Amino acid sequence: MYKQPTKAIITDAGFASRFLPITKTIPKAMIPLGAKPVMQLIVEECVEAGISEIIIVATPGTMSKAIYDDYFHNESANVKTLLDKQGKAERFVPVQEVLSFPKITVIEQDASLPYGNASPIVSAREFINDDEAFLVLYSDDVVFGASDAKALMNAYKANPEVKAVIMAQEMPDEVLSKYGIIKLKDTEKHTLDHIVEKPKQDAPSNLTSYGRYLLTPEIFAKLDETGLDGELWTVDGITRLAAEGDVLVEKTAGQWMTTGDPAAYLAAQNKYAELNK
User: Fold this and answer.
1) HSE (CB half, 13 Å, CA atoms) of 31?
2) What per-residue confidence (pLDDT) applies to 178?
3) Strands (E), the chain
C-alpha cells in the first residue's frame, strides 16, 4: 500500500492545433473560463482536495513553461502599486489568491518521448516518490459541481489496496465512439477490466473514462511501450495495472466537460457562465 497523495501532475503538453492561431502564442489551458484560465480551475480542484505540491507539464520547445511560471509566480508588484494608488486594491485580490497556491513546479515534457497523453506523466517521474500515490489531471477536462480530485482521494482512502482509481461519467450512446469506454471486471465492486478507445460499435458500457486519475508508482513500469498510432497512452498503462490487481472506477458526482476543441470549449464556457452568474 502507498501513502495518500500529496502531489498532483497536471498535463498540458501538446500543440493544441485545433485552437490555432491563439495557441501558437499561449498554451491551450491558459484560455479562460470567465476570468480564470482553465489551468487555474484545475489547480483549484487540487487545492480543494488538500494537494500540497503540483507539477505542471508544459509543451517542450514553446513559451508554455515561461507563461505558466509567470502566471503562478510573478508577484506583479507594478500592478499592485498602480491599483493601490488608484484606490482599487480589491482588484488585486484574485492575483494574491493565485500567488497563495501551494508549491507549483512547471517542467517541460521530455522531448525524447513519443507523442501521447502518457508522456507528460513519464516526464514527471522524478517528482514522485516510490512510496506514494499521486493524482493526474488533464488540463482540457473540467468538472463542474464537484471535486473529482477529492473524490479520488476519498475512494483511495477507503480502498488503499487498489492499484489505481479512475473517474468516469455516463454518456449517451450516440457519443460513445468519441471517448475511452470502460468495461467493468466486477460490477458490484466497480473494478476495471479494460478501456476501449473510441469503439466503433458494441461499446462495453456507457461509462466514459477521462482525465482524472489516482495512480500508484507501479504505473510507470506500465508506460514503457507505445500503443495506438505509436503513442504512449495512459489508458494502456492503466489496463495493464488492472490485469494485476484492482483498479477502482468512481463515478463523478459533478459534470465533466472537455475543452479540447473550440465547440466543446464554448459549451464549457456557457456552463461556467451559467454557474457563475
Assistant:
1) 24
2) 85
3) 7-12, 32-33, 36-37, 53-58, 103-108, 134-138, 141-144, 164-170, 180-186, 191-197, 207-215, 247-251, 255-258
Given this model, what pLDDT does residue 102 score? 95
What are the angstrom distances between the C-alpha of 118 and each of 167, 213, 267? Answer: 16, 12, 26
Residue 173 pLDDT: 87
* pLDDT given at position 226: 64
SS (H, E, C) 76-94: CHHHHHHHHHCCCHHHHHH
Listed as ranges, residues in the chain with pLDDT below 50 are none
User: Can you list the domains of the chain with their CATH numbers?
Assistant: 7-275 (3.90.550.10)
Quick one: which of 232, 241, 4, 247 has its CA closest to 129?
4
Query: Which position has the grid cell 473540467?
Result: 142
From residue 133, give the alpha-carbon distance in Å to each of 3, 9, 117. Answer: 6, 11, 19
How confident is the model at residue 239, as a pLDDT?
93
Question: What CA–CA distances, in Å, run from 202 to 41, 177, 181, 228?
Answer: 35, 10, 10, 19
